[in-house]
């Protein structure tokens, strides 16, 4: 029998405020709806209990700055959400289930390769932690992440932007109209992973027909060409027509069809803030589609106050967007530092705004160009109004010998020549080893 795993973690002890859109009630109405409908009594549904992710599992994917210890007291709920994704992912890889739905909060897709705190309601990236765990422990080679949240999955994109073995696809409301203001077609990947990132910004008012057309005519052919071992769906439900934070027109039935088309191995809950009007029905439709049951009878109580954009009006936009994507060519800035190991280094500066706490992160990213692997990554990061600077050095999965050595050389330089206010993390993904260093505490292993 095809079995579908399900895991609930409402995170009762984590809240951004009683009136905040991201609060514990987000999942309580869904639980009640599923109980009332008897879905959890279906013979193919298998329930799982949450588990805590370790700091090692989190640090495989993300650097927690200035040091991991600073965050420990505030990460319990986030580590359980990430650990829950890992648990259901392991069940899928081991063949216990055919697919699964991780209904856990807090969400994670706005948390990037470096994290100084919470932004977009996210502190840890659940999908990225899951993906790198499966690669490190089970040897999974190629994974596709399809993000259907209404907001661009900028954190997930950031983590895998230089990874040729992870295909990241994001369908979202146009970043010119919505947080985080990114996710345009020119964002296609780093020098060693060009065209492994696909962003499809959609106009406000896009509904079921528009989403399904894009999936069938753009996303699914791209997935088929990539041929991933696993497909992860970052299942944000804030595209629903009742969501208070966005302007899209998806229905619960539309979400069921998205799930049926994607056939994800795992869906991981992201956003969705229409707590009573959408989430119970959207989650029900998604779960039914995963379990191979008929979802077409699922109806939300409200009706849209205006129609979705007609497909005939959207098709010219989609075709122009696709043509624009195909014509964009890589343009990278070659620039390194005097102490960098031999090779061609690509430089990419960026800034990240943390909306929850109101500060700016300044980043200087460098990637070693390589035709054999994902390339060594070196990131200098600092936050506004702080003298603290932190560095991430990443030796990638399947690193070639030259990129592996480049990572060790950079890590050695950091420990012997950096300023007193500098700390750093070495992500040795090749050997699943993590080193944290600061002048105050020396070298620690996680």
Automatic annotation (TrEMBL):
GO terms for molecular function: histone deacetylase activity. Residues 72-276 form the Histone deacetylase domain. This is Histone deacetylase. Belongs to the histone deacetylase family. GO terms for biological process: epigenetic regulation of gene expression. SUPFAM superfamilies: Arginase/deacetylase. It comes from Desulfosporosinus fructosivorans.
């Amino acid at each position: 029998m095809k079995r579908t795993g399900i895991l609930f973690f409402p995170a009762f002890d984590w809240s951004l405020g009683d009136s905040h859109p991201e609060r514990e009630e987000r999942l309580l109405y869904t639980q009640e709806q599923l109980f009332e409908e008897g879905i959890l009594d279906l013979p193919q549904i298998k329930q799982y209990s949450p588990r805590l992710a370790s700091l090692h599992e989190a640090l495989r994917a993300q650097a927690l700055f200035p040091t991991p210890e600073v965050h420990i007291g505030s990460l319990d709920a986030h580590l359980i959400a990430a650990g829950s994704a890992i648990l259901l992912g392991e069940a899928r890889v081991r063949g216990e289930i055919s697919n699964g739905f991780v209904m856990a909060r807090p969400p994670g897709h706005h948390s990037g390769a470096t994290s100084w705190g919470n932004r977009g309601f996210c502190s840890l990236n659940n999908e990225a932690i899951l993906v790198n765990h499966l690669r490190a422990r089970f040897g999974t080679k190629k994974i596709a992440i399809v993000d259907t949240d209404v907001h661009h999955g900028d954190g997930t994109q950031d983590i895998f932007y230089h990874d040729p073995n992870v295909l990241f696809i994001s369908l979202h409301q146009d970043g010119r109209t919505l947080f985080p203001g990114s996710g345009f077609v020119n964002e296609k990947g780093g020098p060693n992973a060009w065209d492994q990132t696909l962003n499809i910004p959609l106009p406000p008012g896009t509904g079921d027909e528009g989403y399904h057309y894009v999936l069938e005519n753009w996303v699914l052919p791209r997935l088929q060409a990539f041929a991933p071992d696993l497909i992860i769906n970052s299942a944000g439900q804030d595209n629903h027509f009742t969501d208070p934070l966005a302007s899209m027109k998806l229905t619960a039935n539309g979400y069921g069809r998205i799930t049926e088309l994607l056939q994800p191995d795992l869906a991981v809950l992201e956003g969705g803030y229409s707590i009573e009007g959408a989430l119970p029905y959207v989650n029900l439709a998604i779960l039914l589609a995963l379990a191979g049951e008929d979802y077409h009878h699922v109806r939300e109580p409200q009706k849209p106050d205006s129609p979705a954009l007609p497909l005939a009006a959207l098709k010219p936009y989609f075709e122009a967007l696709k043509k624009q994507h195909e014509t964009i060519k890589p343009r990278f800035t070659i620039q390194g530092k005097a102490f960098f190991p031999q090779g061609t280094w690509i430089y990419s500066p960026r800034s990240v705004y943390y909306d929850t706490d109101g500060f700016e992160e300044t980043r200087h990213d460098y990637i070693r160009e390589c035709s054999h692997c994902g390339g060594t990554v070196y990131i200098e990061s600092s936050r506004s109004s702080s003298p603290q600077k932190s560095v991430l050095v990443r030796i990638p999965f399947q690193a070639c010998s030259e990129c592996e050595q480049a990572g060790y050389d950079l890590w050695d330089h950091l420990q012997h020549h950096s300023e007193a206010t500098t700390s750093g993390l070495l992500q040795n993904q090749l050997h699943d080893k993590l080193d944290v260093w600061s002048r105050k505490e020396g070298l620690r292993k996680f």
